[in-house]
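USER: My hope is that you can spare some time for a protein that puzzles me. I am handing you a single protein, as its sequence and its fold in token form. Walk me, if you will, through where the backbone shape changes along the chain. The protein I mean follows directly.
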Amino acid sequence: MGPIKNALTVDVEDYFQVAALKEAVDSADWPKMEYRVEQNTDKLLELFDSKSVKATFFVLGWVAERSPDLVRRIQSQGHEIASHGYSHELVYTQNPSTFREETKKSKQILEEITGAPVTGYRAASYSITAQSRWALDILCEEGFTWDSSIFPVHHDRYGMPGTPHSPYILEAPNGSTLKEFPLSTCPVGSYRMPIAGGGYFRLYPYALSRWGLGKINRAGQPFIFYLHPWEIDPGQPRLKVKAFSRFRHYNNLDKCQKRLERLLDDFHLGSVSDVLEAIEFNGQPVKV
């Protein structure tokens, strides 16, 4: 048996669309901002090609509308296209009808560009939480078969602690089911340390990330890793935000790409669907 294949994912959004910078830029001003997501995503595509690695790209509908050729480039290189919603609004700040409208819209945009079904979804900032479980019903009703939005940790912006840490069949409130690939955490004593990528990957020394992700594999489970195109862009404009938000967003941007290159060498990686298809799901669906 070879090494465990893990899921490599990219949330395709631009630096000015993230929740940590919302205090500095309103969504109405997005069209005026310097647009850097294409060049940064192309850097990732070039890197992944050089390492012969395939990934899942969760593309924001707003970006897909403006950059359909970018979506086609991602697809043409053999990567999986999935939905990251349309507006990057936190799910629990939306009402169900708005969420359904945006979810349907983003799925349709991506399917029209790619000519292929889009079956995977990830919420903005992992914002399917205990207060937005209803979103899972809508995902099932709109034709999604798998999701990667639930982070089984305590956090000020997201998290559903107490839910499973490995991929599982999730039962939505309406009784429908879909495969859930939760964001990865690593047991450290009684604590579950978030280890799935992004800001954690930039904050932790690379050796800690490699150890934590390796520990998941040594326990016989795949991990899921995420990154944003802006995280390999230390030259992006600096927006005026509070100290904590500044730390969250800008910490170690200059180190991230080199760490990512090491990760691609150290682990066996592929798309979410590739990993899920290799898993035998046993037992009853889990109600979250």
Observations:
- Residues 96-114 form the longest helix (19 residues).
